[in-house]
């Protein structure tokens, strides 16, 4: 341990007399005490900064080397930059049962959960992250679906007979557009406010040409789920695998295809005057079907990986939230595909009520569940790509 810490202490000593000995160093001193989880990340980063064996694994370690100390903002930034692939844990000579107990994926995951709650908007809603688990997700979906089913039953339209796939004979178009439009706008605003608060802390006023484009490519390609060498990451053993990256791609692009299907259908309805239902070969249905399949296979694979992961490769306390989000994605895709297959049958109204209840539950929980990691990770990638374009500057424990 001492040789490693000596390196860190010498690096700190080099920063004494800022502005004379090393004019390129930017002093930013911590001003707020760290939580226990944040302090643990800072401790492990000090050890990793002296070792640097994993420097080429992902974006976290190059970002780490630009720092000599780790304040709260640094820790929040690095935790959200971590993609939790597990490669560094399997490569680390100081991982448990070593006395240094370096387990970067676990430490980062614990801090990520704290950042979601810390930056949530409205601020009081941050506590929802602690409660947004599998049981809550399923109960919310079941409750909303049951409410819609009972509403149809009271109006005598739960089993009206074949409706030729016309959903708007069950729920008027303006009603669905109003309810889901309002929820969607709230979700966007809540996530944007959280991201803005995060950005003000970790990268106030930062910018660099080309950084946004590269960050977008990194996010869309899931660059850092390749383990630094392109062979993938580690799951339950030392074997490299691209499974996590592929299942994430299926989930992410499945979600985007479903959103594209809804957007195209909206364009058809308002711009072209072509109301639903649409034929099976139409663009909205094709996009929705492909997206539904992606949202079925991807989350199923992620759930399989989640059930097999070693405790040191993540935060065990976060698993209920992870699985709740995965369960809602699976239910959304499954109920949507069943509804499509049975849209011309007498069961269409019942299936539509169940599907809409699940989708509404998914959207209501988006700002306060696992989905938030995509927003904060994208912001962290943006900051990382800005830093890469500003060589020669070292941040000291940004708060």
Automatic annotation (TrEMBL):
TM region(s), chain numbering: 134-155, 175-196, 250-271, 283-305, 325-342, 348-368
InterPro entries reported for this sequence: Citrate_utilization_prot_B, NarG-like_sf
UniProt superkingdom: Bacteria
The keyword Transmembrane helix belongs to this UniProt entry's keyword annotation: yes
Keyword set, alphabetical order: Membrane, Transmembrane, Transmembrane helix
Keyword Transmembrane: yes
Descriptive protein name: Tricarballylate utilization 4Fe-4S protein TcuB
Gene of this entry: tcuB
